[in-house]
Design brief:
Shape: globular
CATH architecture: 3-layer Sandwich
Helix content: under 10%
Largest sheet: 6 strands, antiparallel
CATH topology: Rieske Iron-sulfur Protein
Bound molecules: FE2/S2 (inorganic) cluster
Strand order of the largest sheet: 1-10-9-4-3-2
Number of strands: 10
Distance between the termini: 21 Å
Length: 111
């Protein structure tokens, strides 16, 4: 699995999503009290960025029509979206930098 450095842990605020281009893919990285999550930065309802969305309790609410997605699984928690969003593996720390936040673009299985 190849990992892409997306930042340092200190560069992320709790529940403040950050949109990052990872090898041409729009990825939303979110630091929460439960750890880091990475999902596609595209709402499955009308294809807008989720970066302006609101994060609470491990879910993100789309700013445009209010659909909600589970950050861990990508599953839809609230209409109008009906399709899940992609989730990616994210890890903190590697052998060289203990505060590095890295994302793998290999998509995780949806529930
Ligand atoms: S574009 Fe996200 S809920 Fe409609």
């Amino acid at each position: 699995m190849s990992w892409h450095l997306v930042g340092d842990t200190a560069g992320f605020e709790i529940d403040q999503p950050v949109s990052i281009d990872v090898d041409g893919e729009p990825v939303l990285v979110v630091k929460t009290n439960e750890g880091f999550f990475a999902v596609t930065d595209t709402c499955s309802h009308a294809e807008v960025s989720l970066a302006e969305g609101t994060v609470t309790d491990g879910k993100i609410e789309c700013w445009l029509h209010g659909a909600q997605f589970d950050l861990a699984t990508g599953s839809v928690l609230c209409l109008p979206a009906t399709r899940p969003i992609e989730t990616y593996s994210v890890r903190v720390g590697n052998s060289e930098n203990k505060t590095a936040v890295e994302v793998s673009l290999i998509k995780q299985e949806q529930e």
